[in-house]
Amino acid sequence: MSNMILSRRTLLGASMCVAGLTMVPAVVTAAVKAPKKWNQTVDFLIIGSGFTGLAAALESYYLGMKNVMVVEKMPTIGGNSIINGGAVAAAGTDMQAKEGIKDSPDLMYQDILKAGGHINHPELARTIADQSVENYEWLRDKIGVKFVSVYYHGGHSVKRSHGVKEHSGAGFINPMYKKCKEFGIPVKTRTIVDDFVVEDGKVTGVKVRFNYRHGKENSGKVGYIKANKGVLIASGGFSQNVKMRMTHDPRLTDKFGSTNHPGATGEMIQQAQMLGANTLHMDWIQMGPWTSPDENGFGLGPLFVEPLVGFGVMIDPATGKRFIKETGNRKVRADAIVAMGHPALIYGCEQNVKTQVSKNMSPEQFERAMKNGVIRKFNTLKEMADFYKIPYDQLKATNDKMNGYIKAKKDPDFDCQFFADSVPNDKGPFYACRLWPRVHHTMGGLEINQKAQVLDAHGNVIPGLLAAGEATGGVHGMVRLGTVAVADCMIFGRIAARTAYATK
Questions:
Q1: Contacts of 90 (CB under 8 A, 6+ apart)
Q2: What Cα–Cα distance (Å) separates residue 309 from each residue in 156, 368, 490?
Q3: Whole-number Å distance between alpha carbons of 456 and 472
Q4: Which of 7, 144, 397, 440 has the most Cβ atoms closer than 10 angstroms to its Cβ?
Q5: What integer pLDDT is reported at residue 11 of this predicted model?
Q6: For 10-19, 68-77, 457-466, 476-485, which range has the lowest pLDDT when averaged over its residues?
Q7: Is residue 9 domain-shared with residue 77, that is, in the same domain?
Q8: What pLDDT does residue 21 have?
Q9: CA–CA separation, 487 and 139 (whole Å)
Q10: Secondary structure E strands in 298-412
């Protein structure tokens, strides 16, 4: 088949067992000739306008590859990236040094492997750790991102999450998009990719629908975009595709919400499978242990909860007892909450909240969370116990014991990590947030090499096809550490641009 188009519609009409395959699918689509006339020709085509896509576009420009286009199926740019928590992992930065934080790429690499159960592809994880500081400096110096704090995420050995002043992913996306507009890089929204065009065994372009309307799946006008140097899948994961995620984890029914935007449906992974692309780690789907049942989506809860671990106390409200290591990785905490069968609770005193949460949450966000009932304030432990119907005697006993651990900076029960600036939660007021996990990140996806080239089931490169970010698998293994995915997206997005640039 020298000229063909592989169809998303054909794939979606196949049995669900096909959608869940992690090797070459058995379904074969009909061959369709490439168009006689392309609507547009570019050097490099990027599918998706989040961290990965915009980083790839900007790196392309800095390399001198000016004929680049980004397509986005949704009506607005940014995808999940623009609504994320607003921090990127980096190991060994000047900001860390100023705070006396000792860190290194070696330590970050070991943390990634440990959290990932050592099933990570080591060369991919190593790349993220080794290039994390350069990526942070690129964002700061070339893109204009404003970093304001370094804080801790569960599972890391040290504080290495570099937060932006906006306290959301918009702090990255907005300056990146501003640069794209300044450089004349087109970002076409409402443009969905239906098919890859393959000529003589190489991906040479895509079939799209312009003016697509999400939710109206047959909408839009058909067009064709040729890409001389490659097509990059930067479209993210499949957390919002309930059927697809249940194929890999049957627990994840529609009863579990998602932190993701509605367009995180994974069809580009499926389309690549139809080309023979291999996938890996598809069963490893992460739930965020820091989301609140008192709001929808990603919400404001994570901005409060994550900087509070190692400072606050997490309990089972039914018993008043701790049940898990507060600074444990996301999977450990989320699985423990789901196993309880009801929401958990995290709380901290005013001093810990003021000094830590303020690094990750603006005063306006905090006030909005208070107004919406996501965060609640209590003058005393007894008041909090009465409100949540927690056995007070047990809560007090738990709190007293935890305060002793914080003073000693040692937790013999769960080995929670405490920090030098943590103080006992011994006097009110106290601030609390309920916790119930939502589907957050799909660790599995397309297999790539260190050049961000997509591999088939035999380990061979699929010519002309690249992938980076959450659409890929291998970096994170079983568990993704907080803010490492942001680094992953940007670093491998930029690597993909270099690979495309070098293509003859």
A1: 96, 132, 133, 135, 136, 160, 162, 487
A2: 12, 21, 27
A3: 13
A4: 440
A5: 35
A6: 10-19
A7: yes
A8: 36
A9: 11
A10: 313-316, 321-322, 344-349, 375-378
355-359: average pLDDT: 91
Q: What angle do CA 342, 345, 350 make, to 5 degrees?
A: 170
Longest CA–CA span in the chain (Å) reads 77
**The two three-digit tokens of residue 300, written as one number:** 């404001």
Name the active-site residue from 330, 333, 376, 438: 330
What one-character DSSP code corresponds to residue 470? G
Counted domains in the chain: 2
> Residue 300: which domain range?
290-436
Q: Tokens in use for 473?
A: 């698998």
Residue 342 Ramachandran class (φ > 0 left, ψ -120 to 50 alpha, else beta)? beta
Q: Left, alpha or beta for 416 (phi > 0: left; psi -120 to 50: alpha)?
A: beta
Q: How far apart are CA 187 and CA 132, in angstroms?
A: 26
pLDDT value, residue 66: 87
Q: Single out the residue in 397, 413, 436 at which a domain terminates.
A: 436
Selection from 223, 207, 261 nearest residue 77 by Cα: 261
φ, ψ of residue 179 to 5 degrees: the values are -65, -40
**194 with 69, same domain?**
yes
- Do residue 314 and residue 463 come from a single domain? no
User: Is the confidence at residue 68, as pLDDT, over 60?
Assistant: yes
Asked if the model's pLDDT at residue 58 lies above 70, the reply is yes
Same domain, 447 and 432: no
Positive or negative: CA dihedral 363, 366, 371, 372 = positive
Q: Is 330 a catalytic residue?
A: yes
The token pair at 172 is 């990255």
User: What torsion do the CA atoms of 240, 244, 249, 251 make, to the nearest 10 degrees?
Assistant: 60
For residue 264, being part of any structural domain is answered with yes
Please tell me the predicted confidence (pLDDT) of residue 359: 86
Share of the chain above pLDDT 90, in %: 89
Strands, E, within 321-366: which ranges? 321-322, 344-349
Output the six-digit token pair for 406. Answer: 């914080």
**Confidence grade of residue 7 (pLDDT, cut at 50, 70, 90):** very low
